[in-house]
């Protein structure tokens, strides 16, 4: 019986991690009624973006957080309408680690991000887009339920290389490599910045801020 209960618990946790849940739809519908304006700076991504108070961190009320926990590239594409229609001044994108944890190939991730870039190029060409590298993860000596995520460092590096290539030569698109700012000497997410090997604590967001501050301003 105990083994059965444990198995069900693991299955439920997995479904929360890998599926679009009620939180995703709650946030999506909220973002559909909150306007984006041409003077805004949008941060778009998954839980790592969702987890920060960006406007407070930068002391800038023009910054709008459009991160949704557990989001993936294919789901993100389906919630772009309010952002594209608002034609924001800048867009900071980070997405992909949940795809990798769900065994989505790097090529598919990059193809989906390419669709996003192409849509903005057509419908909001003045928006400056900053494609931020997927952050390193750390699966060493850290216990958390994000085991599948925390073993993706090799795939993260491969995906980031493809993202850099995707951004090269594109008008109003810049690739930002955040890996060095948050990785330790072994190329893993620095333990000073995380308590679960995947998400960031306050010091991690400060390090992220320092790495992109000149682009935000």
What can you see in these coordinates?
The protein is α/β, with parallel strands linked by helices and 217 residues long. 50% of the residues lie in helices and 11% in strands. The chain contains 12 helices and 5 strands. A 5-stranded parallel β-sheet has the order 2-1-3-4-5, with helices on both faces.
Task: List the SSEs and their pairings.
Elements lengths: L1 H17 L3 H12 L7 E5 L1 H4 L3 H4 L5 E5 L5 H5 L3 H6 L3 E5 L2 H5 L4 H18 L4 E5 L14 H4 L2 H15 L5 E4 L2 H4 L19 H15 L1
Parallel strand pairs: 1-2, 1-3, 3-4, 4-5
Give a quick set of tags describing it:
5 strands, single chain, five-stranded parallel β-sheet, 12 helices, 50% helix, 217 residues, alpha/beta
Largest sheet: 5 strands, parallel
Structural class: alpha/beta
User: In terms of per-residue confidence, which ranges show pLDDT below 50 for 5 or more consecutive residues?
Assistant: 1-17
Based on CA atoms alone, the radius of gyration comes out at: 17 Å
Mean pLDDT: 91
Q: Taking strands numbered 1, 2, ... along the chain, how are they ordered across the largest sheet?
A: 2-1-3-4-5
Q: What's the count of strands?
A: 5
End-to-end span in angstroms?
57 Å
Number of helices: 12
Element-level helix/strand string: HHEHHEHHEHHEHHEHH
Hey, roughly how much beta strand do the residues contain?
5-15%
- Name the helicity range: 40-55%
Specify the overall morphology.
Answer: globular
């Amino acid at each position: 019986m105990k083994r059965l209960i444990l198995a069900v618990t693991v299955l439920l946790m997995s479904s929360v991690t890998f599926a679009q849940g009620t939180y995703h739809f709650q946030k999506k519908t909220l973002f559909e009624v909150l306007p984006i304006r041409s003077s805004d700076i949008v941060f778009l991504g998954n839980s790592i973006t969702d987890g920060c108070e960006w406007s407070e961190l930068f002391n800038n009320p023009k910054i709008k957080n459009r991160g949704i926990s557990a989001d993936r590239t294919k789901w993100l594409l389906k919630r772009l309408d309010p952002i594209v229609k608002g034609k924001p001044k800048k867009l900071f994108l980070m997405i992909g680690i949940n795809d990798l944890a769900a065994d989505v190939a790097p090529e598919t991730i990059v193809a989906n991000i390419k669709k996003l870039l192409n849509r903005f190029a057509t419908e909001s060409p003045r928006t400056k887009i900053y494609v931020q590298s997927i952050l390193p993860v750390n699966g060493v000596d850290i216990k958390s339920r994000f085991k599948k995520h925390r073993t993706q460092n090799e795939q993260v590096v491969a995906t980031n290389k493809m993202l850099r290539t995707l951004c090269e030569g594109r008008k109003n698109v810049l690739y930002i490599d955040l890996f060095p700012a948050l990785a330790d000497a072994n190329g893993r997410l620095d333990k000073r910045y995380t308590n679960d090997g995947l998400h960031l604590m306050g010091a991690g967001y400060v390090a992220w801020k320092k790495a992109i501050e000149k682009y935000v301003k």
